[in-house]
Design brief:
Length: 150
């Protein structure tokens, strides 16, 4: 194999890796996935304002939406890849950020004496997740590309 042929093959491999990474990012940050995640977050966080047994039903609904969304996303994904350590840490950090947003809005709503403070905080978290979905796309893309080239 000539050096030119080897370089052409490597360039083709890199091009295919970039295509696969772009498709993965497109699927992960799709509108439907973002909406399902926002609804799941809203249902779980708003459940704190509901009496028993409705709070349990809301948590189950939110968990089911989240799990179902992940399963559907994985089943329909044309590109599959393992979640790398850095990516997993990023997602844990993102989840912690949503909990911090929820807590801050909940505290503010309670201090202001607003009705259904958890529902208000849950709505803010759901909207924040929709906005964050667009903002974190470059970060997830950078992580996925870095992992794809190692």
């Amino acid at each position: 194999m000539a050096a030119y042929d080897a370089q052409t093959a490597l360039d083709d491999i890199r091009h295919r890796q970039d295509q696969a990474c772009d498709e993965y990012i497109r699927r992960v940050s799709s509108r439907s996935h973002s909406l399902i995640a926002a609804l799941a977050l809203f249902a779980m966080f708003a459940s704190f304002d509901l009496p028993r047994p409705w709070n349990i039903a809301a948590v189950l609904l939110g968990s089911g939406l989240g799990a179902g969304g992940l399963v559907v996303q994985q089943r329909r994904a044309p590109v599959r890849r393992k979640v790398a350590g850095v990516e997993a840490v990023f997602y844990v950090w993102l989840a912690a950020a949503f909990v911090v947003v929820f807590s801050a809005v909940l505290i503010a709503a309670r201090l202001l004496g607003l009705p259904a403070p958890s529902t208000l905080a849950a709505a803010v978290v759901a909207l924040t997740s929709l906005v964050a979905g667009n903002m974190i796309r470059p970060v997830v893309k950078a992580i996925a590309r870095r992992d794809g080239h190692h």
